[in-house]
Design a protein that fits this description.
2 copies of one chain form a homodimer. With about 230 residues, chain A is mostly helical. The first copy, chain A, is about 70% helix and about 0% strand. The N and C termini of chain A lie far apart (about 70 Å). The structure holds a DNA duplex (30 and 30 nucleotides).
DNA sequence: TACAATGTACTAACCGGTTCGTTTACATGA
DNA sequence: TCATGTAAACGAACCGGTTAGTACATTGTA
């Protein structure tokens, strides 16, 4: 039995009931969710197929095998967030403000893309072995360093940032705080009996995260007295 | 065929070839490694059984089912690290030094217990649903808050720490940095082409982590000029 | 003897992957 | 305009290895 209605139309524009790119995309989106939810070994090809507008046959037709599908889902996740990150422009701001915005943006961005965070967690469980195979992903993330690096350089020039820090280290620290906020929310919330994901808690954690980064980078002289 | 040699001995002390507690412990240790390595769905009961001095039959005899075994492995992981953490005593130190030690200790401790970190990652992938079932685990971690809370209070009293911070938030921040250092090492290293796990990198990250926490908590007046 | 601990062999369901056949799109040609 | 060849796109049913879990018999211990 056919379980779904294909897009119809015999109009003049070449509409077609066969839609390779659409099918491919549909599978990829469903698979991304399934892998993010259940992990590589936990995800079920049959389940993915069932949620698809297509079939299991097509998964293997387009993606070869389960690992091939997972890899594409992983690449897709990185590509999506990268596209979002590119939107932030801090070039006009003064360094301290720019860094603040960058941290806030990263914090919010991670918060809004739990699926991506989960894919990265899962990939780390697999020791990054699939990411290793994907040149596409490695290229994407280098620009993040560029961004924070430029802000830092400007802050040094204007005398508000401490010298001797490394942009990658900075990126690491910002990532750590923003990533952990999403990745460990479940266990942290349950252990300490407070819902870390609730808006009030998030507001406070966000402020703390910004504070923490700024206080780390800023010269003592550029800090408020307290 | 019996695949292993049982502890022998017909001595006067009641040695026995049947060793329930030993078998149980053996299974748990093997299972912990397998789950930490492959996740809940990725781990194989047959594989665990094979690595055991015992058999699959015994796994079900003692742990009921796969999830029961996983839960015990999870509890075991938490219990082990908790025991380690209890060893740190900062009561005699002055607050700033005590906090420094606590962060260093946490950083090192997480670094040395990758298996635990992986179990927590895996549990978070499962939305903490197994941890939820375990009262045992929740009880363990509250003492961590106690520790950092006491240090913080002393720091406030002696005037070196800023007021208005929350011990749980502090714990969150320390955890985030120390946890991320282990959990995301694979993807981070691969993306930025530097081995984050190498000793030089770790030394720098450790120092940065300590700095970051101290600068966050300390009053500006208690900070070095720069 | 009674009960806890253990070994062996088995099963039923699951699940990744495939076989085989069908439909659709579209170019070609008359 | 329509018949036709063909390759891509698709569906359904199937397969065989894997895997969690069990039945049953046996041994050790108190």
């Amino acid at each position: 039995m056919t379980k779904k209605i294909k897009r119809m139309g015999k109009a003049s524009t070449p509409t077609r009931t066969q839609d390779p790119e659409g099918t491919r995309q549909d599978i990829l989106e469903v698979a991304s969710k399934e892998f993010a939810l259940n992990g590589l070994s936990g995800a079920r090809i049959d389940e993915i197929a069932a949620r698809t507008k297509s079939s299991k046959r097509m998964i293997y037709y387009y993606f070869g095998d389960k690992e091939g599908l997972y890899l594409k889902a992983l690449e897709n996740a990185y590509r999506l967030v990268r596209e979002g990150e590119a939107k932030l422009d801090t070039e006009g701001m003064e360094p301290m403000e720019a860094l603040k915005r960058l941290v806030e943006f990263t914090f919010d961005h991670h918060h809004q893309h739990e699926e991506f965070i989960r894919m990265v967690m899962i990939e780390n469980i697999h020791h990054g072995q699939y990411l290793e195979r994907s040149k596409a992903i490695r290229d994407l993330n280098v620009t993040a360093i560029d961004h924070i690096g430029r802000i830092y350089k400007r802050g040094i020039a204007s005398g508000v940032f401490r010298k001797g820090l490394d942009p990658i280290d900075l990126h690491w620290q910002v990532s750590a705080l923003c990533f952990f906020n999403v990745s460990n929310r479940a266990t942290f919330s349950r252990i300490f009996g407070r819902d870390i994901g609730a808006t009030e808690a998030q507001t406070r954690l966000r402020r703390n995260t910004v504070d923490m980064v700024l206080r780390f980078v800023a010269k003592t002289s550029a800090l408020p007295r307290d």
